[in-house]
Amino acid sequence: MIPAAFEYVRAGSAEEAINLIAEHGDEAKFLAGGHSLVPLMKLRLAQPSVLIDVGRIPDLSYVKDAGDHIAVGALTRHCDVENSPIVMEHAPLLAHATSHVGDPQVRHRGTIGGSLAHADPASDLPATTLALDATYVVQGPNGTREIPAGAFYEGYLTSVLADDEMLTEIRVPKMNGAGWSFQKFNRRAQDWAIVGVAAWRNGSDAGVALVNMASVPVLATSVGSAIASGASIEDAAEQAAIEADPQADLNASVEYRQHLARVLTRRALEEASA
Amino acid sequence: MEISITINGQVVSADVEPRTLLVQFIRDDAGLTGTNIGCDTSSCGACSIHLDGEAAKSCTVLAVQADGGSVTTIEGMASADGTLHPMQQAFMDNHGLQCGYCTPGMVMAATSLLEENPSATEEEIRIGLEGNLCRCTGYHNIVQAVLSCTKS
């Protein structure tokens, strides 16, 4: 399968990328690692007329300790996130969830920013960064703005990123020793989650987010509230699907997804509380 | 667009359309057909090669993305005198192939895996090869072959 024809340009910096996308309009797309976009283009589900390759921008691949949070450059590859000592120490949930993205070959090429900007509710990192209350930094023609993960996702494969904005950095609050768990339920290795749960807990504070339980990643706020008010893990997990709005597909009915969300949330909270 | 990619130590230059996939460049422009196209959707791993030293699925990389880079394919694994790479020899010794279609990709993925984790356990090998499918389901001997190449 071959993508539809497109024009290809390379950006040497974020500024140049933003100028190029302003020049080429809404038919242009950014290309980072290409492991979400290129498959869509091969299936002709996406047919951008211009690809702006940001994959060679040298200064957007990094992990930094920034005091109360860690800062991850948007072009940092999954393999570099999962193996980063800083991520492993301060955001082990992110390191672990990243190690479940695709397979090793995919993680050698795919980037954290590309995955988040793609805004697929079935992928692991949108929900994981949502559970961790991450902030996304985006750059546009008028400078940068910070968007909380909870305000970033609008719908299936849709975010609040403007056509001329680029995600440049992900800021993840340090977990400060909180317990955590990532539960990914699928039938075959390397598949997307039928349902996934990213969770952390630190005493009466907990954050739980759901993968593939709506058209956007879902923050299960009722579970967090239940834990905060002293509910048992079992009772809190019963609240897991309240904020969700799952779809039925070949893998699972709506009811089955809701059931999985409750079971996986219970397992996640048990592991995060251990 | 004029691009150059070093494949198995040889610079291959061609004028390609931007939509050309790396696997097409390898097979059609460089004439190296050891790299197979399987699922064509980045699931099966038959097209695995090394790009700048790390396993990648060449059906999901545009050739223009690899411009200036270095690729190793299965043809580049054996020594010039024909001596097989230890991983190739291990697949042979352990009967790690049946129809052989997945084998080039398996060998490339397995060598990359052990490059990163030279003393991988059986479980780590099984997880590490999750991106490569064997339609003959010959996984047991594939895993044994890779295991025999680990440093204990």
Strand content of chain B: 15-25%
- Could you tell me the number of beta strands of chain B? 5
Q: What's the CATH topology label of the largest domain in chain A?
A: Uridine Diphospho-n-acetylenolpyruvylglucosamine Reductase, domain 3
Q: How many strands, which pairing sense, and closed or not: the largest β-sheet of chain B?
A: 5 strands, mixed
What's the number of domains of chain B? 2
Structural class of chain A: alpha+beta
**Average residue-wise pLDDT of chain B:** 97
Overall structural class of chain B, as computed from helix and strand content, comes to alpha+beta
Identify low-pLDDT runs of chain B.
Answer: none
Order of helices and strands of chain A: EHEHEEEHHHHHHEEEEEEEEEHHH
Poorly predicted runs of 5 or more residues of chain A: none
Summarize the structure.
The complex is a heterodimer of chains A (274) and B (152). Chain A has 274 residues and is of the alpha+beta class. Chain A has helices spanning 14-24, 37-42, 78-82, 85-90, 92-98, 104-109, 112-118, 124-131, 221-228, 233-237, 254-273; strands at residues 7-10, 28-31, 50-53, 63-65, 69-73, 135-140, 143-148, 153-155, 158-159, 166-173, 179-185, 195-202, 205-211, 218-219.
Which characteristics define this entry?
heterodimer; A: 274 residues; alpha+beta; Uridine Diphospho-n-acetylenolpyruvylglucosamine Reductase, domain 2; Uridine Diphospho-n-acetylenolpyruvylglucosamine Reductase, domain 3; Enolase-like, domain 1; 3 domains; five-stranded antiparallel beta sheet; four-stranded antiparallel beta sheet; 11 helices; 14 strands; 32% helix; globular; B: 152 residues; Ubiquitin-like (UB roll); DNA polymerase, domain 1; five-stranded mixed beta sheet; 5 helices; 31% helix
